[in-house]
Write a structure and sequence with these properties.
Layout (H helix, E strand, L loop, with lengths): L5 H16 L3 E3 L1 H9 L5 E4 L5 H13 L4 E2 L4 H8 L5 E4 L2 H9 L3
Parallel strand pairs: 2-3
Antiparallel strand pairs: 1-4, 2-4
Helix pairs in contact: 1-4, 2-3
Protein name: Ribosomal protein eL8/eL30/eS12/Gadd45 domain-containing protein
Organism: Pseudolactococcus reticulitermitis
Pfam families: Ribosomal_L7Ae
Length: about 100
């Protein structure tokens, strides 16, 4: 799991919420995998406390297609950030993805 400050984690969650409002994310295992395979996903979030087979499947896809993946949020934190119950999210906008990745440094 990647280490991040609480401040940056909050900013990251807020950015996820803004991306959701802008319609720049997809959620749910199958839609995220389709987005990865179609080369639309720019950054993928998976809940670190999600089911082991879900985490492995998403990790394998993001590794194969060379898409950055973050596992810093729990399922509850991801769900709270976007306002719906989800364990995996793909950001499809380059600008949002770049901003979120910069918060990790």
């Amino acid at each position: 799991m990647t280490e991040i400050t609480d401040f940056n984690k909050t900013k990251l969650a807020n950015s996820l919420g803004m991306a959701k409002k802008a319609g720049k994310i997809v959620t749910g295992e199958e839609l995220v995998i389709k987005s990865i395979q179609a080369d639309r996903a720019r950054l993928v979030f998976v809940a670190h406390d999600g089911a082991a087979n879900l985490v492995k499947r998403i990790t394998d896809k993001t590794t194969y297609y060379e898409i950055p993946m973050l596992d810093i949020f729990s399922a509850a934190e991801l769900s709270h950030a976007i306002g719906s119950d989800r364990k995996v999210i793909a950001v499809q906008d380059k600008g949002f993805a770049k901003k979120m990745e910069s918060l990790m440094k």
